[in-house]
Amino acid sequence: MASVARELDGAIAGGQFLRTALTLAILEREPVRITNVRGDRSTPGLRHQHLAVLETLAELAAADVSGAELGSETVEFNPGRERLAGGDYAVDIGTAGSVTLLFDAVLPLATELESPLSLTATGGTDVAWSPPLDYFRRVKLPLLRQFGLAAVCEWSRRGFYPDGGGQATLRLAPSTLEPIELIDRARSTAIRVYSAEAAALADRNVARRQAEGALERLDARDCDCDCDCELVERSETTVASDCPGSAIVLRVDDDGRGGDESATSLAGFTALGERGVPAERVGENAADAANRFLDGTAPVDRHMADQLLVFLAIAGGRVRVPAVTDHVETSCALLESFDVPIEKRPENGAVVIAVDPVAPGTAADT
């Protein structure tokens, strides 16, 4: 590679470490060398979805890359553009690898775009170990749009495990992020239910049964908090898909009347259909996670906590998270290796993560 690369070790991390490291390399405009890629997984190295992320980011940034092959445990990545030109791109992951995780790696790059970008990806839209499509569309994007991210996501087909075959398009416009402040949670709580079934499951009313299971569990909730919960939206959708599957997403926000862009706290809870598991139980699993959240004080869910960190690195701000999970800890350490100053402090039964508003790339520009 043309210049000395920042050395990063993924021995105790998974795919999120790789994705965030590549995104930060583009934002910081500096080369990285990542060893022991996905080192704590039973099958380390690049799998199809990780290779798709690497190749997509390399194309967007005109990067010089080595190690871009299945199974590779060492990757070198040197971005070649200071600004991203935008344009139309298409990616076929080739398996049920996660479309939303690919989109997650691209989202922060909106802050470096010179013109709009459209990315159409084919793969798994609702698969294990990744955010279901409705979480990405209904929870993450509305939350980030409040702080200036110009992004929308459309889909034409859903992809469940094992066949994948789903297709979705992420559209980004050049964006400037405001500092992210997510500290308080309001007393008024709106519940939104998004339940989806493949067409092959429609005769079993899977989407309806998932929603009913979730709502019954939420209604049966017994707690001492003074939150005022209200169901404001219920969506049950039958979707085209190459194979049977289902998913449910519960969105919990602090304002049932203000629409997507007005909530100051916003969280999501998900579950995927499994062979042999009643649809009602799938809904209950998502509701159990929502009920645990409602008993706490954080304005975002435990998975969003990890996903917000790279945006904190860009814009600065403070986020109260339910807990410092292993993913949060690993992501914080990675950001610190890029000289992003992070503060973590316990507060009011949760943890506040704060970052000074110094965007990546500053050091490279001085």
From TrEMBL:
Q: Which GO terms describe its molecular function?
A: ATP binding; RNA-3'-phosphate cyclase activity
Record keywords: ATP-binding, Cytoplasm, Ligase, Nucleotide-binding
Originating organism? Natrialba aegyptia DSM 13077
GO biological process terms, alphabetically, are:
RNA processing
**EC number(s) recorded for this UniProt protein:** 6.5.1.4
Q: What is this protein called?
A: RNA 3'-terminal phosphate cyclase
Enzyme type, top EC level: ligase
Q: Which family does it belong to?
A: Belongs to the RNA 3'-terminal cyclase family. Type 1 subfamily.
Give its localization.
Cytoplasm
Q: Which residues bind ATP?
A: 104, 303-307
Q: Which parts of the sequence belong to the RNA 3'-terminal phosphate cyclase domain?
A: 13-338
Question: Its function?
Answer: Catalyzes the conversion of 3'-phosphate to a 2',3'-cyclic phosphodiester at the end of RNA. The mechanism of action of the enzyme occurs in 3 steps: (A) adenylation of the enzyme by ATP; (B) transfer of adenylate to an RNA-N3'P to produce RNA-N3'PP5'A; (C) and attack of the adjacent 2'-hydroxyl on the 3'-phosphorus in the diester linkage to produce the cyclic end product. The biological role of this enzyme is unknown but it is likely to function in some aspects of cellular RNA processing.
The active-site annotation reads 327 (tele-amp-histidine intermediate)
What is a single Pfam family found in this protein's UniProt entry?
Answer: RTC_insert
